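Internal tracking record. Fields below are filled automatically when a chain is submitted to the structure queue. Please do not edit lines marked as system-generated. If the sequence contains nonstandard residues, flag them in the REMARKS field before resubmitting.
Queue: standard
Priority: normal
Entity type: single polypeptide chain
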Amino acid sequence: MARRTPRPGVTAYQAAPRPGTDAPLADEGRIRPRAMVRHTGALVRRNLLQIRQNPESMTDALLMPIVLTVLFVFVFGGAVGGSRARYTAFLVPGLMVILGMTIAMAVGTGVNDDFRTGVMDRFRTMPIARSSVLLAKIVVETGRMLVALAVLLLVAAVLGFDFTGRWPGIAAAVALTTVFGTSLIWIFMLLGLTLRSAQAIQGLSVLVLTPLQFGSSIFVSPTTMPDWLQTFTRINPLTHMADAARGLTLGTGPVAGPVLWTLAWSLALTAVTAPLAIAKFRSKT
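SYSTEM-GENERATED OUTPUT FOLLOWS
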């Protein structure tokens, strides 16, 4: 019988599992960088095809920006901002943060569902790098985040947001939101790998994110809050992200400080949660 030739980038040990056993996900040290990129690209394509087959999975990215913007502008715009046009300009940069969190939160439930439905069991029989499964999720969800931000800007334009001369700042705000949102994706991915059910992930996420959202500068200026709450908003990472997006987009208020704080938070969150998520994925699978 002819001996099977291993695929490029995979050792013979990986390509030929023992009879009667499933081949584990390949050891990261045995996978070449080019092979890891190829594995990640194949899984990205798989996730995109899954979205194509199930367009409903894009509902949050397409409809959430519309619902949030219209709701807050027309319900709270006159009372909070004095005028809807003024409040639209204040709100849109803050909603960038909300959309980043919304997309990130969906990743946790998606990863949890993949384990419960047996999708990860199929990945376990393939000689691919462990991290490629999670990296593919990151790439696809970052793309969904960009779609949501594009819809938000389109709705803002319809509601009268003035984009004249602001495109460089808006592009910078979108890039910064994407970096910050990616760090949040790692957090929710870790939750999806740790908690047992999607309901538990959603419950814990709402419990933690609700005070963070409303105890920040996303919806209103912290100057209207009591002193003890202003102290909380000053250290809230969502405040830093909202202030950075607002400064870049509108050209008002401090920019350098909030941007640096946002990058620091993004780097710290990724440095802590990404290795934990990958380690948890290895032990769970």
